[in-house]
């Protein structure tokens, strides 16, 4: 168990994101502000090629973004298939705070963002445009790759973050450009409450990364939280949700999925299908990367 505050996030790009979140948490700030500020670091960084600005486009060469956020009271906001906005997580937060809805998508989400003062930006960098052109020439087909971030993309992927502040408020955020070269119009797990992220402020939170289709079909993050509700530790709950995927999805061997979880007590856990899923943890006594338990050893 960890003393509060605690912040946990997916992949190596979680390290600088956790630092930004920690600044808020260490000063007694609100976990919701912390997770938003944290994942914004990845959204703004063009070297993180699977989130926000500088992300890999879809098959048609467009950067389309998914994000969601959830607070300790169970309030939620999300955006899907959003283009031209550098910080989809902040739009998701506004959906939560300013509208009677949970999710806005596509043109409507963009319109809402523009009406609320967000600027329209070009998210496709010249480097990613070049990569897309090469991909079009060579592959022309979408194929999910296991730990794509480890093989080709220097450890970058969806960022999901969970934070517990000094007052014990638990919040989460998740933001991504989705799978590289996905079909145009494809939406993954990341903006789906219960799939890419779920928080129950009285129990704990969980978040996912990896092939979103597998997470959506098993409602993975919700499942992890329900396992914790039934008494499992965060680690056991993540492993049990991975087990569910292996039992229910025939071609799970071809994919990577990773879960992180944070219990209300401060205890954390993580699990994945394939080895190689790293997550970043920051507490008073620890700051660094850990590798999740993997189904395949
Ligand atoms: C998605 N879960 O859109 C995201 C992407 C991801 O490893 O995390 N890929 O399916």
Fold and architecture overview:
The strands form 2 sheets. Strands 4-3-2-6-5-1-11-12 form an 8-stranded mixed sheet. Strands 7-8-9-10-13 form a 5-stranded mixed sheet, with helices on one face. Strand 2 and strand 3 (76-82) form a beta hairpin. The chain is an alpha+beta fold and 297 residues long. It is built from 9 helices and 13 strands. Bound molecules: N-hydroxy-L-asparagine (SD4). N-hydroxy-L-asparagine is lined by residues 157-158, 176, 178-179, 188-190, 209-212.
Largest sheet composition: 8 strands, mixed
Q: List unreliable stretches of 5+ residues.
A: 149-156
- Report the span from N to C terminus: 26 Å
Tell me the β content. Answer: 15-25%
Bound molecules: N-hydroxy-L-asparagine
Name the helicity range. 25-40%
Instruction: Determine the number of helices (DSSP H or I, runs of at least 4 residues).
Output: 9
Radius of gyration: 17 Å
Secondary-structure class: alpha+beta
Question: What is the arithmetic mean of pLDDT?
Answer: 94
How would the global form be characterised? globular
Report the strand count: 13
Strand order of the largest sheet: 4-3-2-6-5-1-11-12
Order of helices and strands: EHHEEHEHHHEEEEHHHEEEEE
Active site: 158 (nucleophile)
Binding site for substrate: 186-189, 209-212
GO cellular component, one term: cytoplasm
Site (Cleavage): 157-158
